[in-house]
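Notes taken during the Thursday session

The instructor put the following on the board and asked us to keep it in front of us for the whole hour. The protein is V-type proton ATPase subunit a. We were told not to look anything up and to reason only from what is written here. First, the residues (821 in total):
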Amino acid sequence: MEQFIDKLPQMDLMRSEKMTLVQLIIPVESAHRSITYLGELGLLQFRDLNADKSPFQRTFANQVKRCGEMSRKLRFFKDQIDKAGLRCSPRLELEPDIELGDLERQLADHEHEVLEMNSNSEKLRQTYNELLEFKIVLEKASGFLVSSNAHAIGDETELHESTYSNNGFIETSSLLEQELNPGPSNQSGLRFISGIINKDKLLRFERMLFRATRGNMLFNQTPSDEEIMDPSTSEMVEKIVFVVFFSGEQARTKILKICEAFGANCYPVPEDTTKQRQLTREVLSRLSDLEATLDAGTRHRNTALNSVGYSLTKWMTTVRREKAVYDTLNMLNFDVTKKCLVGEGWCPTFAKTQIHEVLQRATFDSNSQVGVIFHVMQAIESPPTYFRTNKLTNAFQEIIDAYGVARYQEANPAVYSVVTYPFLFAVMFGDWGHGLCLLLGALYLLARERKLSSQKLGSFMEMLFGGRYVILLMALFSIYCGLIYNEFFSVPFHIFGGSAYKCRDTTCSDAYTVGLIKYRDPYPFGVDPSWRGSRTELPYLNSLKMKMSILLGIAQMNLGLILSFFNARFFGSSLDIRYQFIPQMIFLNSLFGYLSLLIIIKWCTGSQADLYHVMIYMFLSPTEELGDNELFWGQRPLQIMLLLLAFIAVPWMLFPKPFALRKIHMERFQGRTYGVLGTSEVDLDVEPDSARGGHHEEEFNFSEIFVHQLIHSIEFVLGSVSNTASYLRLWALSLAHSELSTVFYEKVLLLAWGYDNILIRLIGVAVFAFATAFILLMMETLSAFLHALRLHWVEFMGKFFNGDGYKFKPFSFALISDDDE
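Then, after some discussion, the predicted structure tokens were revealed:
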């Protein structure tokens, strides 16, 4: 048997890749190029040899800071390009690589240019907005000033009292300069202030004016009829033109302060119609000039941004890679001569040759006189865990890693989950109609795989796309289990031939509850369609699915125990095999393996034995005769023997292993024998959380080991019962899915179809489609997915999986994301 097992081929995914701890001694002149080439290879995980230093105390802190500043500038350019609505595709022709210093200077020049253009554009836009508001006020306020011509107030006084309080308005026309320097004013006449304000502030503004002047004012308003850009938010806002008539210098001061507080812009409007027209012409002329200037500035700015945008992606990639290189160089140490950098890291054993070739190429390309020294070190700590995956297996590996990363080179549950996970999902979701819907969704994701993989997706869509192959397998297994259950949206079909049952006579042709007799061989595949709607449908399906759930559960838990044997054998822990694997197999199969055997015999023989009675009285009165519940000859003595084996297995799990570990410790550390310290009996059991090959000189705590073994034994004994019962969720969710589907079909679709009304039928079809899509295809899918997840994480992986390792995270440019900046 041992020779047969030794000859079995090793699986790529069964255990993680063998890892090697290596040391690099790199000359300073070739350090940057060597790290760059290693980042392109992506098969070496560096250890941080400067963990005690802060980021600012490290050797290449200034270079990292420079890269961070360049990243900020590139993000600024990207925001500016997005804000301008430009679509800059990278140039197709190959651009020469640019040095980091040259790129830094280019980015500084481009940033200065863009910031200066933004500043000028902002000033011009502010001036343009003020002139536009002035034009609107001139047009709208003139209507309110017609009635004021009866007052004996001179033009100079009017213009002096019409206040222009916007300090940002510059370069006024000559007429406006004249209007802003009036002669002596009439302090007792009727005055007015005109301006413009945001619509959402108007009500509070008018109320405040009324309170401040105690009602001694006349407030007129009118919409501006066109939206104006708010310079602070760059959004178009709706504004209202107002004219406030008042009397007195004190009221004027209050009104101006209120206008300033509410952000209202005030503009001078002469009462003289001739002057109004002249001002309007001058403002329109200035607006026309400013529009041309703004358009020219925008075109120039877009041209500058386009020139940056063509190379933006390449520059961002370059800066991101350079920052990653310097971050990695900061993890290396200088040697005593300050001429070489010393680094350590983990790499897969198969990658040593590739890494050596890459380092040789880096030495040659950098014209270094001294090559990089690359040699293997003796590992003390536990290596990282690295599984090579593909598009199909990656999603299943992520599901397992969400529970815990496998310990270095322990059995990988993802290999088996590729089949068992979608199958257990399908047992709960079995309906080949619903499976076809899932299949269409998975095929859509696969058909658009290339396009979707290059897009930035939302969190939900990214999760669906990442699990597209999981959904595909779940759909295929759901179709398979649906064919076994013979359910297509809860409707049975005679796919594989006719039913094995027929009516006893013509009176029962329309009744499925009585009179059916078996007249031919059983239905060749799956459940006979005649069970649907029969009086015994629910008891039959309950019995079938419940027993099937137990069989599947016992099979998967046995697989977990077998994997624990291979783990113990791989790590050389004979104690785990003798005092853990063997008694656990005996206990589990003496009770629940025997139950599975009874289920199979009952199915094969068609016996009417009550298995509940058999299992209960196996414990209460094992010597009692079975009577009608006897399924085979010798069943009673077999039950007694299995019961004794189960009772013996409990102390077998509990007592021998702690005493055996104590004996091994005494022999090793008191000089009676000198064993190899690297064996895993002590490593895995005495100090399960320590690194492999750690310090073994610590005091052996027998009480702690015994308590740990006691907890482990009790957990397994009680867990055997609870885990077996936990697999009954396969039956419960399958039944719930089937019954929900039946209710929606019979009580919604068929009920609506029974009416001779097209509207009711359409409503019934819509409700049925909605219930199928959102309840059966979304909620039930999620429910079955989570229950299958629980069965794998707890019931299956709990038998053998430690999950206390850490992932292999190599330095690789391909793994650098935009968020790493």
